[in-house]
Design a protein that fits this description.
alpha+beta; 5-stranded antiparallel sheet; elongated; about 15% strand; about 50% helix; 3-stranded antiparallel sheet; 10 strands; about 290 residues
Length: about 290
């Protein structure tokens, strides 16, 4: 039981890209249409003239239903569908809800064909069982392929980051300035600091808080009205400066350790009283490479 619980808690990548959701929905609907039209399982052998119309209708509904389940709930329950919190268990639950949703609608649609064509009536439970049997094949295959592709992309991204950082270190070793000036959005205010003293930056609404190391090894905070995106662009040439999370930019030279697992890594520093979260886009391999 504990093994199953651990497996369900394993991290799984929830792809928020709308084109991915459309692609997954399209191939799901296409597979169901072709499977039902070619093999005609269950009661479909009783159809004759309208088999193309009926199976095509099922495929279209499967496509629309899958897309609705993937797209609408993620818009409403953003925290639940956050990719940093997504797990195997949540993905299985979403698949179950989606297949049930589509199955109920198809069962209701199928009832309209039963009387005029004198077809055998199926209970809702029986029809849902058939729906799960047909749908699980393409969904399981697609999810497996997607997970493999994401894992390979993250590995390549880690290698690219490490290679890029090594090149930047070699190219910029003698050209980068130690003193940095970051201007506010309105260009009227600015913060000046030595890059060697920057420990981390975090966002505070429309403001960013810069935490700088003082001579006594304590941190001092400076606040400026500016986005982390703009700051990150200003500091992108400095290989030790990393935007590890949507709310944090860190100086890897002050990071001492990495905690957590693939579900969520945390960065530890002797100068920071808490652990800084890391986006799921970073693998542990890439983090180790960045911190070395």
């Amino acid at each position: 039981m504990k093994t199953i619980s651990n497996w369900l808690s394993m991290p799984y990548y929830f792809n928020p890209n709308i084109s991915f959701k459309l692609k997954m929905s399209f191939f799901h609907g296409l597979f169901i249409f072709l499977f039902l039209y070619i093999f005609r399982p269950f009661y479909l052998s009783q159809f004759d003239v309208i088999i193309l119309e009926y199976t095509l209708g099922i495929g279209i509904i499967a496509f629309l239903g899958t897309f609705i389940v993937l797209y609408i709930p993620a818009l409403i329950f953003k925290n639940y569908f956050n990719e940093d919190n997504w797990t195997v268990g949540r993905n299985i639950f979403l698949m179950t809800v989606g297949i049930t949703f589509v199955g109920v609608f198809l069962w209701y649609l199928g009832e309209t064909y039963k009387e005029p064509y004198n077809l055998r009536k199926l209970s809702l439970f029986e029809f849902l069982l058939y729906t799960f049997l047909v749908s699980l094949i393409p969904l399981t295959l697609f999810i497996f392929i997607n997970e493999k592709n994401v894992r390979e992309k993250r590995k390549k991204r880690a290698e690219k980051i490490n290679t890029h950082n090594k090149l930047k270190q070699q190219q910029n070793k003698n050209t980068l300035k130690d003193t940095i000036i970051i201007y506010s959005e309105n260009k009227k205010e600015f913060i000046e600091f030595n890059i060697k003293n920057l420990v981390y930056i975090t966002s505070q609404g429309n403001y960013a808080s810069f935490f700088l190391l003082k001579d006594d090894n304590d941190l001092t905070e400076k606040i400026l009205r500016v986005t982390l995106t703009k700051i990150n662009k200003e500091l992108e040439e400095y290989s030790c400066i990393i935007r590890c999370h949507k709310s944090y930019i860190i100086n890897s030279k002050f990071i001492n350790d990495i905690n957590g697992n693939a579900r969520g890594y945390l960065l530890k520093s002797n100068y920071i009283s808490f652990k800084i979260p890391v986006s799921r886009s970073f693998s542990k391999q890439s983090l180790i490479g960045l911190l070395n």
